[in-house]
Design brief:
- There is one protein chain.
- With about 350 residues, this protein is an alpha/beta fold.
- It has one domain (about 10-295).
- It has 5 helices and 16 strands.
- The chain has helices spanning about 25-30, 65-70, 300-305, 310-325, 335-350; strands at about 40-50, 75-90, 100-110, 115-120, 125-135, 140-150, 155-165, 170-175, 180-190, 195-205, 210-220, 225-235, 240-245, 255-265, 270-280, 285-295.
- It has a 16-stranded mixed beta sheet that branches.
- The chain is globular, with a radius of gyration of 20 Å.
- The termini are far apart.
- The model has no long low-confidence stretch (mean pLDDT about 90).
Length: about 350
C-alpha cells in the first residue's frame, strides 16, 4: 500500500490533485476489517445471488484508496439481475474500526433491465468508502441514481464502476451534497453500440469539499456518451467537476459530449470545471467538451422579482432549474425519486447561501 499513489497522473495532468488526500492519510495506518457487508438491500423482481467475485472493475492496486478499501472490507454481495427488477442499496450500520468499507457487484443479464438506487454516507465520523461494480450484458438497460447524503463529519470516497456490453444502455445521475472532503471516482467502459447518459448535481455548503471525476472509455465501435455535471460551491465551499472522455482506436464511428460547470455563490467559494477529451481514431462522428461558470442571470432575477419573488427565492428557483437539467438523464420511476431527493439538496442551498430580506 505504501508504494501506491492516491490517483493516477493521467486523471489530472495539469493540477497535481483536486482532492485533499491528507484528509485520508490518518486512516491508512488504522485499518481493520469490518465484520460484514456494509450495504442493506431492498429488491423486487428477478434479483438473485450472483458469482462471488469482485475487483474486475476496481483492482486493489489501482490506487492507495482502492487498497485501503479492500483492506477494510469485511463482506460484500454479488447480485444477478434477470428480466425486470428494482434494487436499492442503503448504508448499513456496522461496528467497524476507523473506516467503513462497502462493496457490491451487480450483473445485469442480457436483455434485462434494472432501476438501481444507491445511497452513500452514514459513516458516523469514520472514513466512508463505498464502491459498486456494474456489468451490463448485451442489450440490457440500467437506470442508476446515486444519492450522496451526510458523511458524518469525516472524509469519504465512492465510485460507480460500470462496463457496458453490446447495445447496453446506462442512464446515471449523481445527486447530493458533500462533507469535509468527498472524492467521487466514476468510470464507465463502453462496448460496441452501447450508450451512456450521465448527469450530476452536487452542492458544496460552506466548509465542504467535493471532487467528482468521471472517466468515460469508448472501447467499442458505434458507442455514444453524453455527460454533464454541475457543481455549486456556497460560501467557503469547494466544488470540482472534472473527467476524461476517451475514444480508443477501435471505437470507430463513436460520439461523445462532455459538459461540466460550476457556480460560485458566496464569499470564499471556489470551484473548477475540467472536462477533457482524448481521441485516438480519425473515424469519429463527434467529440465535444465544454466547461462553464454559471451565475443566476440578472435578467432572469429581475423578471422573477418583478413577479413578487424575493431575491433568494428567485435565485433558488434558477438553481433548481439547473438541477432539473441534470436529472433528465434518468428514465422511469427513478426520475421521480430523484426529483423528490432534489428537495433535500436544495435545502442546503436555502440554509447556507446568502439571503435577501427585501
Amino acid at each position: 500500500m505504501e508504494v501506491l499513489e492516491y490517483q493516477r497522473v493521467s486523471d489530472s495532468p495539469t493540477v497535481k490533485h483536486y482532492t485533499d488526500w491528507s484528509a485520508y492519510e490518518p486512516f491508512a495506518g488504522t485499518l481493520s476489517r469490518c465484520p460484514g457487508d456494509g450495504f442493506s438491500y431492498e429488491a423486487s423482481g428477478d434479483v438473485r445471488d450472483g458469482p462471488r467475485s469482485i475487483g474486475a472493475l476496481l483492482p486493489a492496486d489501482e490506487s492507495k484508496l482502492a487498497a485501503m478499501h479492500y483492506a477494510a472490507l469485511g463482506g460484500f454481495r454479488s447480485i444477478s439481475i434477470g428480466g425486470s427488477a428494482s434494487l436499492a442499496l442503503e448504508p448499513r450500520g456496522i461496528e467497524c474500526g476507523s473506516t467503513v468499507s462497502r462493496h457490491s457487484a451487480i450483473l445485469v443479464e442480457p436483455g434485462a433491465n434494472v432501476d438501481l438506487r444507491i445511497t452513500l454516507g452514514g459513516g458516523a465520523g469514520k472514513l466512508d468508502l463505498s464502491f459498486v461494480e456494474l456489468v451490463l450484458g448485451e442489450g440490457s438497460t440500467a437506470n442508476v441514481l446515486i444519492y450522496l447524503g451526510s458523511t458524518g463529519g469525516a472524509p469519504s470516497a465512492a465510485g460507480l464502476r460500470a462496463a457496458l456490453g453490446r447495445r447496453a444502455r446506462l442512464n446515471y445521475v449523481l445527486l447530493g451534497s458533500g462533507g469535509p472532503m468527498h472524492h467521487q471516482d466514476d468510470r464507465v467502459l463502453l462496448g460496441p453500440s452501447s450508450a451512456l447518459r450521465a448527469g450530476a448535481f452536487l452542492i458544496s455548503p460552506g466548509g465542504s469539499r467535493v471532487d467528482r471525476f468521471l472517466g468515460i472509455d469508448h472501447a467499442g465501435e458505434d458507442s455514444s456518451s453524453s455527460a454533464s455535471a454541475m457543481g455549486i460551491a456556497l460560501g467557503g465551499g469547494y466544488s470540482v467537476m472534472r473527467g476524461i472522455a476517451r475514444i480508443e482506436e477501435g471505437a470507430a464511428r463513436s460520439r461523445t459530449e462532455f459538459t461540466a460547470g460550476v457556480a460560485l455563490m458566496g464569499e470564499g467559494a471556489r470551484g473548477y470545471a475540467v472536462p477533457m477529451l482524448e481521441v485516438h481514431t480519425g473515424d469519429v462522428l463527434e467529440a465535444r467538451h465544454h466547461s462553464f461558470e454559471a451565475k443566476p442571470d440578472a435578467d432572469q432575477l429581475f423578471y422573477l422579482r418583478s413577479r413578487g419573488l424575493k431575491e433568494d427565492e428567485a435565485r433558488d428557483l434558477i438553481i433548481a432549474g439547473w438541477a432539473e437539467a441534470q436529472l433528465s438523464a434518468l428514465e422511469g420511476a427513478l426520475a421521480g425519486v430523484a426529483s423528490g431527493l432534489l428537495g433535500e439538496v436544495m435545502r442546503a442551498v436555502t440554509s447556507a447561501a446568502p439571503t435577501s430580506r427585501q
